[in-house]
Amino acid sequence: MAPRARRRRTLPSLLALCALLGSLQVTFQVAPPCASERHYEHVGRCCRKCEPGTYMSSKCTATSDSVCLPCGRDEYLDTWNEEEKCLLHKVCDTGKALVAVVPGNRTAPRRCACTAGYHWSEDCDCCRRNAECAPGFGARHPVQLNRDTVCEPCLAGYFSDTLSSTERCKPWTNCTSLGATEARAGTNKSDVVCSSSLQSPKRSDEPQVYLPSLVILLLFISVALVAAVISGVYYRKKGKALTANLWRWVNETCGRLSGNKGM
């Protein structure tokens, strides 16, 4: 009889324990989760964070929600947050060879990059001028923004005679296509020199053809000018003589007429 009595007494205790555990399980399931990136726990509550582009002016209370305000000009926040102030955008200083490649807004940061001809260096956290390729080397294309120049040796048939961070190797001149012959072979630092022997006779003959004609033309102009000067002087003197003779004849005639009237 004693064992049965003990079993009857422990049974209600087990039932009470199961009921307590069941109520605790229900309580844990009903409680709101605060593990979300958009919520935070404060004063025993699970409160909403501020969305990107805003900051938290004041946290939630037992009776009110969080107060969020928008970021100002040149400020941003790109995540759900509890921040008391927004972050400042980077300044892309043109004096330091920086330029804005992404302007940025209230929800995204501004991104800077080095201007063309410069690249970012981790050694100084600054923009450095790109390396220049020596003659005999050309820059690999396409030239990548914010990357240093990659110089490659010029292959056979190509050359580079300048110091540049952007120019690639150039092909040798094709003398045959120009109707000329190759006078000097090209190298990785110099172009081919083409012979102009086919065009030299024409150029040397041009002065022989035009020089006599030019001399004759100049002589003709000189003779014409001299003749015009002589003619002008001659006719000017002749005109004066004619005028003097005319006046002399008029005076003599008038004198004879006067003498006849006196008689």
Structure overview:
- With 263 residues, the chain is an alpha+beta fold.
- Among the domains are: 34-92 and 104-109, Tumor Necrosis Factor Receptor, subunit A, domain 2 (Ribbon); 127-190, Tumor Necrosis Factor Receptor, subunit A, domain 2 (Ribbon).
- It is 35% helix and 21% strand.
- The chain has 2 helices and 16 strands.
- The chain has helices at residues 2-30, 200-262; strands at residues 39-42, 45-48, 54-58, 67-70, 75-76, 87-88, 98-102, 111-114, 118-121, 126-129, 137-139, 151-153, 158-159, 170-171, 181-184, 193-195.
- β9 (118-121) and β10 (126-129) form a beta hairpin.
- The radius of gyration is 54 Å and the shape is elongated.
CATH class of the domain at 34-92 and 104-109: Mainly Beta
Uncertain residue ranges: 1-7, 23-31, 198-206
Spatial order of the strands forming the largest sheet: 1-2
Q: What is the overall number of helices? A: 2
**Mean pLDDT reading:** 80
One letter per element, helices H and strands E, the order comes to HEEEEEEEEEEEEEEEEH
Strand content: 15-25%
Structural class: alpha+beta
| Number of E-state strands | 16
CATH H-level name of the domain at 34-92 and 104-109... which superfamily?
Answer: Tumor Necrosis Factor Receptor, subunit A, domain 2
The name CATH uses for the topology of the domain at 34-92 and 104-109 is Tumor Necrosis Factor Receptor, subunit A, domain 2
Main sheet properties: 2 strands, antiparallel
The global form is elongated
The radius of gyration is 54 Å
CATH architecture call of the domain at 34-92 and 104-109: Ribbon
End-to-end distance = 214 Å
The helical percent reads 25-40%
